[in-house]
């Protein structure tokens, strides 16, 4: 915050430097004016560099602490879930939250908080300086700048809905990718790579289509806000030119006022963009909060009863993925009731064929 205040003061100092330059040129002070400009310029350069570095350093420390705390809290909360609570959601959703949602919050919340605070400080300090130049110009600047906040307020809900749909699409994609890689041996054994690729391509296209709609919705708000920014700049320039013609202000004040007005308008433009991003990311925040505030213990809502099959006798069982590639060669085995068995074998050895293709279908 302190670094942002110093940066705002540097911008005010820069506007006065521009005013001093114009006054020096029009007053024809000669080398005396040039020397004072050189001293002011070097001073501004040093202060600006130190302030910018301090601002970047403290923002980096804030992001490290905030992101680290959020990631640790999420992982700790998930690990403390019981089995029923954990299985109430597809595990791919937790992966999506830790990978995608946390990054979204980093980019659109944690990074924006110090930026927004800095923009508010900059706009406020520079607005005070603009009042010193000319109160009427400051009033026009406030009115035209306020118009920039209208598009995010009206389009924000649609942007949030588009973001929500996009995040749900990412969840589905992550779940599908997880299932694909988990069953990679089965895919290779049955030779269904082309079908899986076709299904994955369809999923990727759907996700990108949702992302496209989200970006288009945001783009409408940004385009309108940008138009209002330039509208405000045109109005201020015409008004300042009118004051110069009427002899109300000097050319130096005109240049200084326009310079400082930019430091009010541009931070306000960034704030409107950040407001839209915050409205867009609200569904993501809600998903993360739902995990952090979720119940650690959940009662099973549905109990599955499976009839006992007793003893299972396998005699002369044969199985092949291809006509000339048999993997189960006349298997004979008796599975005793109440005992636990592990089916172990290499890739393509018939484990899945035994369990799902024969045991599961015939028994249950």
Q: Number of domains in the coordinates?
A: 2
Number of β-strand runs: 2
From the alpha-carbon coordinates, what is the Rg to the nearest angstrom?
A: 33 Å
In what range is the share of β-strand residues? 5-15%
Extract low-pLDDT stretches: 360-364
Main sheet, how many strands, which sense, barrel? 2 strands, antiparallel
Query: Strands of the largest sheet, in order across it?
Result: 1-2
Identify the CATH class of the largest domain: Mainly Alpha
Determine the CATH superfamily of the largest domain.
Answer: ABC transporter type 1, transmembrane domain
Order of helices and strands: HHHHHHHHHHEEH
**Coarse structural class:** mainly alpha
CA(first)-CA(last) distance: 66 Å
Q: State the CATH topology of the largest domain.
A: ABC transporter transmembrane region fold
Q: What value does the average pLDDT take?
A: 78
Q: Based on CA inertia axes, which overall geometry fits? A: elongated
Count of helix runs: 11
Q: What would CATH call the architecture of the largest domain?
A: Up-down Bundle
